Amino acid sequence: MKKTIKIRSEISALIISGCSASLQRNIVPHTTILFLLLSFSGVAQKVINVSGEVKDAAGIPFAGAAIFLYTAKDSVLMKAAFTDNKGIYLFESIKENTYLVSVSAIGFKKSFVNIVVSDARPMLVPVITLVNEVKGLKEVTVQTTKALFEQKADKMVVNVNASPSNAGANALEVLEKSPGITVDRDGNISLKGKAGVQIFIDGKPSYLSGQDLVNYLRNLQGTQLDQIEIMTNPPAKYDAAGNSGIINIKTKKTNQVGFNLFLNAGYTQGIYARNNQDIIVNYRKNRVNLFGTLGRNERNTDRTFIIERKFRHTTTKEIKSLLDQVSGERNWNASNTFKIGADFSISPKTTVGAVVSGFYNPENSTSTGNIFIADPNNTLLGKTFSKSISKDSWENVSSNVNFRHLFDSTGKELTAELDYITYSSNNTQNLSNYFYNAFGAINGKPDTLYGDLPQKISIYSAKADYVHPLKKGAKLEAGIKAGYVETDANAVYDSLINKILVRDIGRSNHFIYDERIAAAYINYSRPFTKKISGQFGLRLENTLANGSQITTNEKFRLNYTQLFPTAYISYQVNQKNNWSVNYGRRIRRPDYASLNPFVTFLDRYTFEQGNPNLRPQFSDNVEVSHTFNSFLTTTLNYTKTSNIIQLVLEQDEQTNQTFGKQANIANQRQYGISVSAFKQLKNWSGNIYVNVYNNEFNGLVNNTFVSIGATTVVLNASASYKFKKGIVAELNGFYRTAGVEGVFRIKALGAVNFGASMPLLKNKATIRLSVRDIFWTQKVTGESRFGNVDAAFRMIPDSRTAGLSFSYRLSKGKLNNSKRKNGGASDEQGRVKGSDN
Q: What's the DSSP call for residue 127?
């Protein structure tokens, strides 16, 4: 029991150390300030980097050992770290003193060594050899409980498994209840009230956007997720894409040496049933690490749409006609995913790895709707029955080769990665409309449209990063990256006329687009005094794009170069109070398909159209944060965005048609405040996050000046209690007051969730129960009124569900915390957008 408690305390120390280290990562707007700070060193404290190596009795580098640095005089813990897969550890910015280095690993005796840190040169600790413990591995039990939310200096971390209610949830549902994240009526993700989030998976861009990204996240099970990292102002080493920041979804990876197996199966019941199965396998021994993942997720869902439109005269604004629509959509899809890879240690300092992953997602969707058209006095003029049947298969194969070389024990490191990714989609659509008069009699011939909408996307990416430690705890990082994307979308429509298919030339379109992005960055970080540290970076990106509409022989070309400065300064007032300021400039490029002017039909009166005139939007973000006692974090933020990309509506009062398209509609200004807190008292723990922000849009939409603003409050809260025998029960939820999303005003909505988990089979298995959206309140209601556009809508999703899952872990080996690179392709992957379903 004492051993378990001690291991817990040391793991807690590692978390505290990680938070302290992360305070040295982030950001400044002007190169002049950057060089001034580079030259500032007169008040810096003498600090030294301390590194060493750990091996086992056979002389093989030992990965995943826990290293603790104590002051020799009073045994105060100063730093904590893990050895990497070369057995090497590093303590940065250590003051001159006498210390005790402690090395721990499960199944091995604890080792100690005394060191004296002096001068200003990096120090190399003699090699430490671990000796096997007589006690067997099975007799040692490590029990740790992570907080659901962890507020760190440069990001918010959500530990997915800490919430039992995540059982049976998909990645989109997990994101929806994460602090500061909102998901709109179409599944689009915003962060702190700002759209344009860049989604990363395991540190690399998802290479998806629009409906394709939504479908991917809906098919990615929460059981496959480990953490969600929310970064509103990422450092310059990240792609500048993402207007409001980056959300990095980290999937589960084993941290054990030897053979490890994770199995999971779940069943969820909403209006219709859903099920999922996952298997994760890993084998790590000596210099070889082999890993693989296989998963399947089958979903049946239902959604109801209620839309009310008023068609007004362009000049007089008088109502000419009314259109009310009630539609239901039944959707079935199955996500089949795989990943296989290997890491090889060529030498103690050099590692190479390769990963191949992909998915195959077939989908069938049937949508039916009744559309009623009336005059201004609400007298029924006619009715249209619409039916749409879509079949889609979305396939992906991603390959990555990575290289890492550690030059010496001071931390000089070179990494490089190559990525090749392909996506292909085969989508067919059968849209039929049947017309009736006010008395229910057939009124004209049915209108039938067949669509064949294939697309293919190829992405190539290469990047290299170098880290160079400097004197006095400083560090210089630099890197280059090049990416190339080619998309080919061919929309072919046929109309059924007199029972004969006729090619619809006016609706068909073939669009080819290619884009090249070249980037380079430099980061500099250092402690300036005992209490002040900072990081400053500058990123340069050049974009060259070509679009060609084969059908009409129209072409466009874009070529622009932009600088993206970043800055982060931290001031540690005392042990309980820390202040930080960060700044970053970011870009949001248009989705590939949003540039394509072809039309996607939803029904006879509703469709979407691309816009080849789209240009990128830019934002400047500033944040000031205060953290008290690692418990309460308060952040003030201000963002100014130009040329904002937003979906807008246009209406034709002559045909009663409404179509949406992406446009650079306006400039946006936002300011806000967020407060997050976590508290644990014995068996109780609780988290709360409150974000208050004001959004204001000003610009021309359809030749009409539009000014829309609103203040919104977002609340996320959770409370859990741990019973005997490891049983945990949790209640959580979110609430969002009314607000604006571009030209749409959205009413308040929220949800309450319940979850419980219980360990089984001597902690090798876990059973989880979850009930989501208990009161079925996650229904989206909104309106859009500007110019002659007057529309209101309501979307009722299949969000109230109950799920049960069972997971089993089989691990034979010792703890290991080495990390594998996961690819470095750029933001291009986050902009893939195929046909909407």
A: P
